[in-house]
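Predicting holo structure, 3-isopropylmalic acid bound.
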Amino acid sequence: MKKNYKIAVIRGDGIGPEIVDEAIKVLDCVCVNEDFTLSYEDYLMGGVAYDMTGSPLPDATIEGCMKSDAVLFGAIGGEKWDNLPREFRPETGLLKLRKALGLFANLRPTSVFDELLDASTLKPEVLQGVDLFVVRELTGGIYFGEPRANDGQKAYNTMVYSKFEIERIARVAFESAMKRRKHVCSVDKANVLEVSQLWRDTVIEIAKEYPEVTLTHMYVDNAAMQLVRNPKQFDVILTGNIFGDILSDEASMISGSIGLLPSASIGGTVGLYEPIHGSAPDIAGQGIANPLATILSASMMLRFALDETKAADRIENAVKKVLSDGYRTKDLARYGAKEVCSTTQMGSIIADYVAKA
Ligand code: IPM
Ligand code: MN
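Done. Tokens:
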């Protein structure tokens, strides 16, 4: 009897449903030659959840995710919900789910596919060989700090980190570095912020547990500059919630398209796997969204949540092969496309390659 893993699926808004469908197509194909099966249960989150239930994160979604082995998520948000009070916004649903599942570590790898070197706005020689890994703290910092308020005349948020929160995310970064090139660059604003001073002091302490890893520090403004000046200098970038949000979008341009980058949010009992891009309502329903970031997120799910390394590798290799064979969705059509394909065609071609690998 094959093992069965339960996957909670959150399709969300905009292009979310289309790209998640392709990831599931690929997952179903990979299972055929593996020793496991996957079963899926759909849950609501984001604007669609608000429209149907009045809440962007219904309790049933939290409960369903908790009962699963992993969560596969598309994207949420859209103009339609932009003027709602904060508690009803789609983004609030995602932030609450991260908190509820204890997902304090967000892993965002960025590498360059040689075939897409021209797709980036950066020069190919700056990009070739880049392979970096952002470890972003995800359930603390200014996103969640109290007090927070806006009375129409004055508004504030608070950037708070406890030593414990810094220690545990630092360990994730050092553990990741041990499996990579053994370098951690911790990004903060310790020249100005107390919270960053505690961050830096704590990271230095944790580094002592990992003598093989080289630790450097960078102020966030400098890091933003260095990422486009010479991204090859980075291996693991360790940083807090808001700095990591900003730097990982910046880093995505290194790969040429934000439509390529997967992410894993871990730390609790159940991990969440999602593309780093948003719901792109402007192109939803047209069959032109790039499903690769979600397909690669599904591969991260196999690797990190289910420990199915071989299956994860098969998907990654299929993505590489599809790109080197010249298949492109519309966003990348100008860069070495032999054939421009739709969202569903792209999913089918990858599934086909996976079946043969
Ligand atoms: C991300 C997104 C989210 C964030 C939003 C949608 C709340 O930008 O996952 O990076 O800011 O964390
Ligand atoms: Mn973001």
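Residues 1-111+256-357 form a domain with the Isopropylmalate Dehydrogenase fold (CATH 3.40.718.10).
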